[in-house]
Design brief:
Largest sheet: 5 strands, antiparallel
Number of helices: 6
Strand order of the largest sheet: 1-11-10-3-2
Distance between the termini: 45 Å
Order of helices and strands: EHHHHHEEEHEEEEEEEE
Shape: globular
Structural class: alpha+beta
Helix content: 25-40%
Strand content: 15-25%
Radius of gyration: 21 Å
């Protein structure tokens, strides 16, 4: 007979990251470092990254210059010493994300589906929260996509991304999105390349997972404990058309208006987390 299955829906994940590996990544040219960082960190995590090291004050209207201001300083900070605080910090976040992915065995999570952020603690002052414990926020499954024509995309302040991840081919007909191959034509209406984004996530839709990060010499180790319920319902995958009226429905990406969750004040400390 088969043994009894584990009776709870709690799963654990563990990961270890070598700090020197991150240091080598941080020595890349700024444009490569930016591209790498955008694959790893969510827009919920970026304000903490700036606040942690007090490298630059970034405002939402200065997105174009923030890479020039911030990333070269990150490169310099990392190259000064192989196991500096910046590399240690990112190694901890990397390990925490990987541990979270491992704890969700039934889902195919990616780095950008997981945000490692400080826990909200009303007993702490705002400047102290960057040194408090962290937890993981996991994006919901199968988020719907928002599509919009070029005029609406311009109105919403979307970047002109051509990545297949953020564009889709088709037409908007009678307020509905009709997906078509880019080469398709019908009734003299060729398929268009439309901007596409994830639907905007709310706090209630994100699942909290417990995280513990430890640093020992040149290694960062993280443990995640998470709910991994195989019986939870899966959301329908589909498209929602944004006609430009009302509040934005999409989750911004780098270069979009409102990409930063908050404006980044001057940092107050160098917490671990």
């Amino acid at each position: 007979m088969a043994p009894k299955p584990f009776p709870y829906l709690i799963r654990q994940g563990v990961d270890i990251c070598r700090v020197s590996r991150v240091s080598k990544i941080l020595e890349k040219p700024s444009h490569e470092l930016l591209r790498w960082a955008l694959k790893i960190f969510t827009r919920q995590e970026w304000p903490q990254l700036w606040r942690q090291f007090n490298e630059a004050t970034v405002k939402q209207e200065a997105l174009g210059s923030q890479a020039q201001l911030f990333l070269p300083k990150l490169t310099l900070s990392a190259s000064q010493h192989a196991h500096g605080p910046l590399a240690q910090y990112i190694a901890g976040r990397w390990a925490a994300k990987e541990a979270t992915i491992k704890a969700h065995q039934r889902r195919r999570l990616f780095m950008r589906d997981v945000s490692i952020v400080p826990q909200d603690n009303p007993l702490l002052k705002p400047q102290e929260r960057c040194t408090s414990r962290v937890h993981a926020l996991v994006a919901p499954e199968n988020l719907k996509r928002i599509v919009m024509d070029p005029e609406v995309a311009k109105k919403r302040g979307l970047s002109s991304s051509t990545s297949p991840e953020y564009t889709v081919s088709g037409n908007i007909e009678d307020g509905q999105f009709v997906q078509k191959p880019e080469s398709a034509t019908q009734d003299n209406h060729p398929a268009l390349r439309l901007q596409s984004r994830r639907v905007r996530m709310t706090d209630r839709e994100q699942q909290i997972a417990e995280i513990s990060i430890s640093h020992e010499a040149e290694y960062a180790v993280a443990v995640c404990m998470a709910l991994d319920d195989p019986t939870s319902p899966r959301a329908d995958v589909g498209y929602i058309v944004d006609d430009g009226t009302g509040e934005p429905l999409h989750e911004p990406i780098w270069g979009d208006a409102e990409w930063l969750v908050e404006q980044v004040p001057e940092a107050a400390g160098h917490g671990d987390g």
